[in-house]
Amino acid sequence: MLTFVGLGLYDERSITIEGRDALRDADRVFAEFYTSKLAGASVDDVEAAHDVDIEVRDRAGVEQDPDPILDAAEDSDVVFLTAGDTMISTTHVDLRLRAHDRGIDTRVIHGTTAEAAAASLTGLQNYRFGKATTLPFPYAHGADGVPGSVLDTIADNRDRGLHTLVYLDIKVGTGPKGPDPDHEEYMTADYAANLLSDELDAVGVVVARAGSQDPVVAADSLDALAEESFGGPLHLLVIPGDLHMLEHDALSELAGAPETALPDPV
């Protein structure tokens, strides 16, 4: 059996009770933290809290050499851990399909997602979000500025009055000069706002450290957000579309948006 468990958003306590029980009952536990991470806990913290040993795999160890995980799951109970929800990344869907190809039973135990937290913390209605996008570091896509695909996604959503959730790049094990096992870099919301402000005249909404005891939510023009600092990772950025009256009030009251920065509600 191969059980995929989402750890939730922030630390070793963010896991669901069902996920905790599966983790503690497992014969072996694998994890990856290159698609996301628990900003408030280390691997040691998770191991200590749940009395388990965790075998962390890098990208190659999951995508190119998954056999140690699958071999173990053929005749024992194996848990595969990720931050957030375990099936958000296509990497994990691929691993599950490989298990099915080998006749290995699989199970999914969900964790809270950054997308759900972004709607909950900002007050923006979850059914008014369009297609999400990821903003990469310029060196990661081989050019300066913002990829056209990112701008197209935002523009298409805004044309339809929809909000855009912008995931911010994470680079673990790969840096500006290529593979680097010691490299760990997390794009900040102010950096992202600065990149986007060169291309967009828009309001942005920052969500920092969702799932923690003191998440930060801040809304203003992209130019203004680019001048701020929002603390440690992980950060998200939302570009709102049309605002319902309730959403307008939420950004003002919950995210501190200046009235002059917000478009009129529709």
One letter per element, helices H and strands E, the order comes to: EHEHEHHEHEHEHHEEEHEEHEH
| Largest beta-sheet characterization | 5 strands, parallel
Through-space gap between termini = 50 Å
Q: Within the CATH hierarchy, at the fold level, what is the topology of the largest domain?
A: Methyltransferase, Cobalt-precorrin-4 Transmethylase, Domain 2
Give the strand order of the largest sheet, numbering strands 1, 2, ... along the chain: 3-2-4-1-5
Classify the beta-strand content into a percent band.
15-25%
Class from secondary-structure proportions: alpha/beta
Q: What does the average pLDDT come to?
A: 94
Counting H and I runs of at least 4 residues, what is the number of helices?
11
Specify the overall morphology: globular
**In CATH terms, what is the architecture of the largest domain?**
2-Layer Sandwich
Helix proportion range = 25-40%
What's the oligomerization state? single chain
Count of extended strands: 12
Question: Any idea of the CATH class of the largest domain?
Answer: Alpha Beta
As residue ranges, the low-confidence spans are none
CATH superfamily of the largest domain: Tetrapyrrole methylase, C-terminal domain
